[in-house]
Every structure is written in structure tokens, then in C-alpha cells.
Design brief:
Elements (H helix, E strand, L loop, with lengths): L2 H27 L2 H8 L17 H17 L1 H16 L7 H32 L12 H18 L2 H10 L5 H6 L1 H15 L5 H24 L3 H4 L1
Helix pairs in contact: 1-3, 1-4, 2-3, 3-6, 4-5, 5-6, 7-10, 9-10
Length: 235
């Protein structure tokens, strides 16, 4: 394919992805109130009621929830479009691994999002609200809460894609398992920095809760990189 043909291919796949995201966002809008109830689960026992301070805030938060839901539900289509675009560059024999790529990517995102939702968020919320003491009464904006929750869930979902990213980069020859082994010490430092940035609380306990799975995922990424060069993976 020529450069112009590649640009046309990118444009076509982006358009398909946008159509699915927009359509599913519109569909999810009517379910936004129910999804908001689900998003309040991690704050159970810590936050009784969410409030809003602007007439348009409740409407905008429904749009935000609908868009996030549409984006997540569209992930199989988005990942397929990504795989369909990069698979010719990786090699003809790897095209048959498309289902494996989609399944692994979705499983990694769901695992990361679930970890954030059921493990990190409840601990973080209770920790942060614990500073209110007797003199402060928490009044949490629905906009701030939803942004806080969706941000952490989405970020952890993406962080857990590390082994999938390792597979793609290894197939392109950008990295290999020997390189990942060599930079292990630096990777540990970067992982703890990322955990410190992503984790909404400043304490080392919550940071470690996120860093430990990331260290495990890095080790998985090393093995994925090694196996991606094996004959059974390349066809």
C-alpha cells in the first residue's frame, strides 16, 4: 500500500470506530442513571448522597457516563479495527491470532478495571474521607466523584494492557525479552512512579496495591515477548 492508501485505511477505520462509539453512547444515555447507581458501589458506607452545584451538572454527568459506557462497550470493535490495521505489518501468519489478541485485550482491560473498582476505589475513598474528622462534613459533587471513579477505572484498565502491548512491540521488533530483562531495575522505578500518579491517595499502602500487580504484569510481558518470537506464535 502507498502512503496515501495507508492514510485512507486509517481514516476508514477511525470513522467506523467513531460511528460505533457515538451510536453506543446514545444508546447508553438512557441507562446512565442505573450506571451511576453501580458507580456508587465502591463508596458504600462512606458517601450517602452525591450532590450537584450547577443546573447543567446532572445532565453533563449523564453524558459523561454514557460516553464512557459507549467507549467501553465499543472496545471489541475498536480493538478489531486496530488489529486489522497492524496485522499486515506484523506478518501474514499472525492474522489468525486476531481472536487471541481481542480476547486477551478485553480480558486485561476488564481485569484492570475490576481491580480498580472493587479493590482500589473502596480503600482510597475511605482513606481520603478519613481526613474529614469531626469538624468537616463531606459534600461530594457527583461530577467530581464520577470523574474520580471513571478516571481510576479507565487508567487501571489500560495499565493492565501491558502484556498485549509487549506482544505488539515484540512483533514489530521494537523490543524483545532480553531488552525487558536488561531494563528491569528501571522498569520497577517507572512502575512505582506510575502507581504513585494513578493512585488517588498519597500513602505507600495504596500505591503498593497497584504496583504489585503491575510488577507481575511486567514479568508476564517479558514471557509474552519471548513467546511471541517462537514458531508456534508466528505460525
Amino acid at each position: 500500500m502507498t502512503f496515501v492508501e495507508h492514510l485512507e485505511e486509517v481514516r476508514r477505520r477511525i470513522m467506523i470506530s467513531l460511528i460505533f462509539v457515538i451510536a453506543l453512547t446514545i444508546l447508553a444515555f438512557s441507562y446512565a442513571p442505573k450506571i451511576l447507581i453501580l458507580l456508587k458501589i465502591p463508596s458504600s458506607g462512606a458517601i450517602d448522597k452525591l450532590v450537584f452545584f450547577d443546573p447543567a451538572e446532572a445532565f453533563m454527568i449523564h453524558i459523561k457516563i454514557a460516553f464512557f459506557t459507549g467507549l467501553v462497550v465499543s472496545m471489541p470493535v475498536l480493538l478489531y479495527q486496530l488489529w486489522a490495521f497492524i496485522s499486515p505489518a506484523i506478518g501474514k501468519n499472525t492474522k489468525k491470532h486476531g481472536l487471541l489478541f481481542l480476547s486477551a485485550s478485553l480480558a486485561a482491560f476488564i481485569l484492570g478495571a475490576s481491580f480498580a473498582f472493587f479493590v482500589l476505589l473502596p480503600v482510597a475513598i475511605k482513606f481520603l474521607l478519613g481526613f474529614s474528622g469531626e469538624s468537616l462534613e463531606p459534600m461530594i459533587s457527583v461530577s467530581n466523584y464520577v470523574s474520580f471513579t471513571l478516571g481510576l477505572v479507565g487508567t487501571c484498565g489500560l495499565v493492565f494492557e501491558m502484556p498485549v502491548l509487549s506482544f505488539i512491540l515484540s512483533k514489530f521488533g521494537i523490543i524483545d525479552h532480553r531488552f525487558l530483562r536488561r531494563v528491569w531495575k528501571y522498569a520497577v522505578v517507572v512502575i512505582f512512579i506510575i502507581a504513585a500518579v494513578v493512585t488517588p491517595t498519597p500513602d505507600i499502602f495504596n500505591m503498593t496495591i497497584l504496583a504489585l500487580p503491575m510488577l507481575f504484569l511486567y514479568e508476564v510481558s517479558v514471557w509474552v515477548s519471548k513467546l511471541s518470537g517462537k514458531k508456534w506464535m508466528s505460525g
